[in-house]
Design goal:
mainly alpha; 15 helices; about 0% strand
């Protein structure tokens, strides 16, 4: 992701010996845990050994499963206060190691389990923690998926569920404003928008604000696909063709304005053709002959601008030319 590869120096003889010793200790610990698991050993000592192993390798899903089994077999599991304390410590342990490998499926899965088993979870605190984790890797979809899990429980626990949605909607705005290429933030926004539209009761004002956000992202980076995808999704959720046509006309106007600044931008040109084609399907006759000619000429330009996809543009020329009764090559 734009980061220069770091070339590591050759390790010294002492460093090689130390590395070999670490490997041997790791293998011995791994074997010991596997034997305990095979023997169905559910003790505090076994729990400690799994922790030591997972600190070294977070990708051992079978060890995470074994660790959960140990917790549930301990006598203290039936004592709610003792369980609360044990799982609070587990959450702290996870927070400590999750920063070492924030993309680990198994750690996020284990954290979901721990929160679900906690007698008295503090969802608001957890929301603050996941925000800090996302600050380390804002596009991490594990973190965003976990955030949706936390928000769902927070919404269920509070009477003002709408306020939770508004808070989360504002969070996505903040993340997109910071990085318009954050696909995870756009996706989360798409999950929230239907509820926001229903709550605010001013759909046109909301849609205008969304369009402004999209256009700001497009002007920032016209070749990033995230804002274009969200624009298409926004069109798809409209309940009337009139609203779709209005949004498409706004999209055409915005693209034309953008092309005045960057006339050979691939994605604006592709989206312009798509907008004309969609307008024609929604409202026959809405696309003028001049606009049809503009769409076909744009496809011819794209064949030279983006030769890797020349077959696609040739096919689109034939399809639209056939629909509009124009010879297109």
């Amino acid at each position: 992701h734009g980061r220069r590869r770091q070339h590591e120096r050759e390790p010294t003889a002492d460093e090689k010996v130390q590395a070999q010793q670490r490997v041997e200790r790791y293998c011995a610990l791994s074997t010991q845990v596997a034997e305990l698991k095979a023997a169905n050993t559910y003790t505090v000592e076994a729990l400690s050994l799994t922790k030591q192993l997972l600190e070294q390798n977070t990708e051992l899903h079978s060890v995470w499963n074994y660790r959960r089994q140990i917790f549930m077999h301990l006598d203290s599991w039936q004592d709610m206060d003792a369980r609360q304390q044990a799982l609070e410590r587990e959450l702290a342990f996870l927070l400590e190691i999750i920063t070492k490998n924030i993309k680990s499926y198994w750690m996020w899965n284990h954290r979901v389990w721990a929160l679900g088993a906690l007698p008295r979870p503090e969802w608001q605190r957890e929301l603050g923690l996941v925000a800090k984790l996302l600050a380390l890797d804002a596009r991490n979809y594990h973190g965003w998926n976990y955030r949706r899990f936390v928000v769902a429980h927070l919404r269920a626990a509070r009477e003002d569920a709408g306020a939770v949605d508004e808070q989360e909607f504002a969070f996505t705005t903040e993340q997109i404003t910071r990085d318009c290429a954050n696909h995870a933030a756009w996706h989360n926004r798409s999950k929230l928008l239907p509820a926001i539209l229903a709550q605010r009761g001013e759909p046109q004002a909301v849609l205008q604000a969304e369009t402004d956000l999209i256009l700001n992202a497009i002007y920032t980076d016209p070749d990033d696909q995230n804002a274009w995808l969200y624009y298409d999704w926004l069109l798809d959720i409209q309940t009337s063709d009139t609203d779709r046509v209005r949004l498409l006309r706004g999209k055409v106007a915005a693209i034309r304005e953008l092309l005045e600044l960057e006339e050979d931008g691939k994605w604006p040109l592709v989206e312009l053709v798509g907008a004309f084609a969609e307008l024609d399907k929604l409202q026959p006759g809405a696309v003028t002959d001049a606009e049809k000619g503009e769409a076909l000429e744009t496809l011819r330009r794209l064949k030279s601008i983006d030769p890797l996809h020349i077959g696609r543009y040739t096919d689109m020329l034939r399809t639209l030319g056939g629909r509009w009764g124009t010879l297109a090559t």
